[in-house]
Amino acid sequence: MRLRTLATAKTLGAISRFQQHVRGLETFTLPDLSYDYDALEPAISGEIMQLHHQKHHQTYITNYNKAIEQLDDAITKGDASTAVKLQSAIKFNVRGHVNHSIFWKNLAFTSEGGGEPPHGSLGSAINQSFSSVEKLIAKMNAEGAAVQGSGWVWLAVDKELKRLVVETTSNQDPLVTKGPCLVPLLVIDVWEHPYYL
Ligand SMILES: [Fe+2]
């Protein structure tokens, strides 16, 4: 009897996941980092990297998944009011997941990245748009520091202007909210939580 109950629960779970997939309501899991938490020391402490990844990024994913399940339930019940109310949490948390997923890939220890200023086509584009890599760094630092509250500072390609640009976004807003022609190259998290230790 217990086996039958478990089998039924498993089947219902599979059906529910299939329904979510058909509706495009897929859930996420925390992506692994390609380096150890302490790999960036002394620039960034391993302890804050672990907290940032396992606590803060995980929370966006947990809250998104929870909201998606509630949305699925609301759609099944035809509860439009709840479905509408969930949009804000879904938007905020999925953006937090996407922004952090880009951010982790920006970071590297000096044996694998950083150090020398970029050269080749990226170096030329930086020089053309900002005069030098030092001026780009100063601009990103200044614009990141000027973000009120929480947000992100981005280095991006503007496909329309055919040049690099620096943009900022608030809270968990993605770069696309600043324009459809912007493609992110680098993003810095200027919330307090990556640095509070
Ligand atoms: Fe963050």
From TrEMBL:
It catalyses: 2 superoxide + 2 H(+) = H2O2 + O2. It is found in: Mitochondrion. Its EC number is 1.15.1.1. It comes from the Eukaryota. Keywords: Metal-binding, Mitochondrion, Oxidoreductase. GO terms for molecular function: manganese ion binding; superoxide dismutase activity. Pfam families: Sod_Fe_C (PF02777), Sod_Fe_N (PF00081). Residues 118-197 form the Manganese/iron superoxide dismutase C-terminal domain. Mn(2+) binds at residues 52, 100, 189, 193. One of its GO terms (cellular component) is mitochondrion. Destroys radicals which are normally produced within the cells and which are toxic to biological systems. Belongs to the iron/manganese superoxide dismutase family. This is Superoxide dismutase. It comes from Lactuca sativa (Garden lettuce).
